[in-house]
Amino acid sequence: MNIRTRLTLSMGVLIVFIMLVLLAVTHVQFYITRDLAYLEEKEAFESLRKEFEQYYRSNGDSWENLRSARFESAAPFVEIVLSAEGQILYQQGELSSDELRSDGYMLTLDQGDRRIGRLYVMNEQQYKTYEFKTMWYSMLPNIGIASLLFTGIAALLTILLLSWRLTSPIRKIISGIGTIKQGGAPAVFPEQRKDEFGAISRALREMNDSLAEAERTRKQLMSDVAHELKTPLMIIQGELELAHETGAPMTADKQASILDEVLRLSRLVHDVLDLSRLEAGMTELHPKEEDLVALLEDLLAKTRFMAEDKEIHLSLHAKDEAILVSVEKFRILQALYNILTNAVYYTNAGGQIRIHAETVHLPDRQQRYARIRVEDNGAGIAKEDLPHIFDRFYRADHSRARPGGGTGLGLAIAQNNILAHQGWIEVQSVVGEGSVFTIYLPV
Ligand code: ADP
C-alpha cells in the first residue's frame, strides 16, 4: 500500500469516527439534560404528581373525565398520563404519546401500595433539547451524506496536497539515489529541509561523499600501483630486449640490476596486498602476550648489520625489564621494522638511532600504555610533508633514490598495524636535526 492510499484510508476512518462521536454526544447530552431537569424541577414535578394522585382520590378512586380536568402545576410541561395498564388517559402538548414515552421523564402515580398510573413529563428545557435532538436525528442522514461528501472532497484535496508534500521529497531522494547509481551528475537531495527528510538527505549525502572518496582512493591506488610497477618493468624489459637483440651474454652487473628490479616489484606487490588487507580489515589478528623489550632486542639483532654498514650507532634504552603487551608478534615487528629501517635509511653515516621503551600513564586515558620512541639524528622531514608521510606511496623526497627503493608504503603499513592493536603513532621532526617516531600500545 503506498503512502497516498494509507493516508486516504486513515482520513476516511477518522471522519467516520468523528461522526459517530458527534452522534453519541448528542444522544448522551439529551438524557443528561432530562435527568438534570428532574433534579432542578423536582418540586414542580412532584407537585404535579401529587395533583394527579389527588384528582384520582377525590374522583372516587377513578380516572374518569381526566381528559377535561385542568392542573395548576401542568402549565410549563408537556405531559401524558397513562393508566396502570398503559392506556392514554390524559395528554397535554404537541408531542405524541410515543415520543413522550421514549424521551419524557417518568413519574409513577400510586395510591398507597397500588400503582394507578404513570405520568410522563418534559419541562421546557428538556423540550428544547428534545427538539434539537429530533431535528438533528431527522437531518442526520442528509447532513451525514452532505458532510461525508464535503469532508470526503476536502479530505481528498488535503490528502493530495499532503501526499504531494510528503512524497515529493521522497521522489527527490529516490531520484538522487538513482543519479548516484548511474554515477553521472552530482546527486541532488532535499538537504535544506528541517524535518526527517532533510536528515535522511544529509545522511545520504555523507554516505555518497564517503563512497565517492573511497572510489577516488581506489582509482588513485590503481594509478599509483600502475605507476610504481611501470619503472621496474621498463628497466627489466629494456635490459632483456637489449640482450635479446645483441645476443651478447648478460654481464653480472646487468643480472644484478634486473634482480634488484624484480625484488623491488615483488616487495611492492607484497606490500600493496598486505596494506589492502589491513585497510579492508581482512587481516585477522591472533594476539598473544609478548614482551616488547624482548621483541625490540630481537629486532635490533636483525637490523644491527644495516646500521653497522652505515656506521650508525644503534641503542636500546628500556626502563622496565619487560613490558607485556597482547599483540600479534609479526604485525608489531613489521611496524617497528619499517620505522627502524626508515631511520637507518634517512640517517647519514656516523649518526645515531636511540630506541626508548617504557610504560606510561597518559592523563586523558585510564589504561597504561607502552611507549616506544625511535629517535634518529638524520635528515628530518619538512613541515609540509609531515601530515602526509603515513599516506600510501607518499615519499617526502619525491624520488625513488632510497637505497633498495622504498615503496612509500612502509609507514602506511606500520600505522595500520598499530591501529589494529588499538594503538597509534606520532611523529616529530625537524629538517636537518632528525625525527622521532613514537608508538603507543595498550599494555
Ligand atoms: P618509503 O618506502 O619511501 O620509506 P615510508 O612510508 O616508509 O616510505 O615513508 C614515507 C616517507 O616518509 C619517506 O619517503 C620519507 O621521505 C619519510 N620518512 C620516513 N621516515 C623518515 C625518517 N626517519 N627520517 C626522514 N624521513 C623519513
Keywords, please?
443 residues; alpha+beta; Helix Hairpins; Heat Shock Protein 90; 3 domains; elongated; binds adenosine-5'-diphosphate
- List the strand order in the largest sheet: 6-8-9-11-10
| Structural class by sheet pairing and helices | alpha+beta
Largest sheet: 5 strands, mixed
- Which percent band covers the strand fraction? 15-25%
- Count of strand segments: 11
Proportion of residues in helical segments: 55-70%
Topology as a string of helices (H) and strands (E): HHEEHEEHHHEHEEHEEHEE
Approximate shape = elongated
* Count, helices: 9
In short:
This protein is of the alpha+beta class.
How would you describe the overall organization of this protein?
The protein has 443 residues and is of the alpha+beta class. It folds into three domains: 183 residues, no CATH class; 84 residues, Signal transduction histidine kinase, dimerisation/phosphotransfer (DHp) domain (Helix Hairpins), CATH 1.10.287; 155 residues, 2-Layer Sandwich (Heat Shock Protein 90), CATH 3.30.565. It is 56% helix and 17% strand. The chain contains nine helices and eleven strands. The strands form three sheets. The chain has a five-stranded mixed beta sheet. A hairpin with a 2-residue loop joins strand 3 and strand 4. The model has no long low-confidence stretch (mean pLDDT 85). Adenosine-5'-diphosphate (ADP) binds next to helix 8 and helix 9.
